[in-house]
Structure formats: C-alpha cells, structure tokens
Amino acid sequence: LCHDVIGPDVRLYWDQAVYKKPEYPKPFPWHQDNGYTYIEPQSYLTCWIALNDATVDNGCPWVIPGGHLRGTLAHRTSKLGFVCREEDGLEALAVPVRAGGIVVFSSLMPHRTGPNVTSGVRKSYILQYAPEGARIVQTDTACDAPDRQYVILKRGDRVSPPPLQ
Ligand SMILES: O=C(O)CCC(=O)C(=O)O
Predict the structure, then answer these.
(1) Is 95 close to ligand 1, i.e. is its CB under 6 Å away?
(2) Which of 2, 18, 19, 156 gets the highest tally of CB atoms within 10 A of its CB?
(3) What is the pLDDT of residue 24?
C-alpha cells in the first residue's frame, strides 16, 4: 500500500491509539491531518484501523470524497481541536468499518469522527506513513526520529522495524 501510494522510500510518520469513550459524546471535528502539523510534502498516508467494529453510532470516520484534492485548508482552533469545515453537508460520507478493517486516506482528506452514543468504547489504531525526506514546516525538522519514525521501505524493499525497547 505504501509503495503504491507514496513510493519506494517510506517512513512511519506517526502512530497513535484513539479510544472514543461513550461518556463524552462529542464529535472529533472536520480536519485534515496535515492541518495539525504541516509537513512537506503535504500529502502523506493515514491508515485508520478499527480495533472493534466502528459504526455511525459509536463514532466511525466520515470523509468528503474528492476533498483531498484542494491542498491544505485553513483550520481554526476550537475546544475540540482544529477545524477546517463546519457542516457535514450532503457530500459527507460515513465509513463504518468492521474490526480489523482499515480506512485509508490522504493527510489532505477532510475527515471527522462522530460522537459515540453507544455504551461501549470505540477503539482505533492510526498509522501514518510519509515519504523519506518529509519535513515539519514550522520547525524545519526532518520526520526521522530514530525511535518512532523509522524506515519501512527502502528503494522498494521492506525494512524490518527496530526491536521494541
Ligand atoms: O479516531 C478518531 O476518533 C479521530 C482521530 C483522528 O481523526 C485523528 O487523530 O486525526
């Protein structure tokens, strides 16, 4: 997937687990991943992995088909994070996904997750991959922290991650 979408030289850029608990039924507002930390090139890859079934009711991702073609959008700050779009609109598409399924999208795709109005926790694990040489624009630093932004593809060949510490 990384080879086809990014190219032959790829690093892990970021990974995080996101558990959406039911007691705080707020959406994660519309944003682009590149709207949080601007990196260059702007387009990298987000793999949103469902650790349990993600449904409209427990807060699955929503996307705007084709919305990644307009570059990095202006984001405003809010109590719930950065926001690039106020309304869902008719073009917004819910992406329910079963446990183990992956929603794959560009860092330029506007996306949100809805409120969790169920009684269970919605669990996801997010992996992001960027081309070798990607840099954080604001601090002009390379995305190559050896402990977590390691090479996964070099000239098209898979590279094993460093052993866990
Ligand atoms: O998983 C979620 O609820 C939202 C996570 C997300 O969109 C992000 O971390 O950029």
Answers:
(1) no
(2) 2
(3) 77
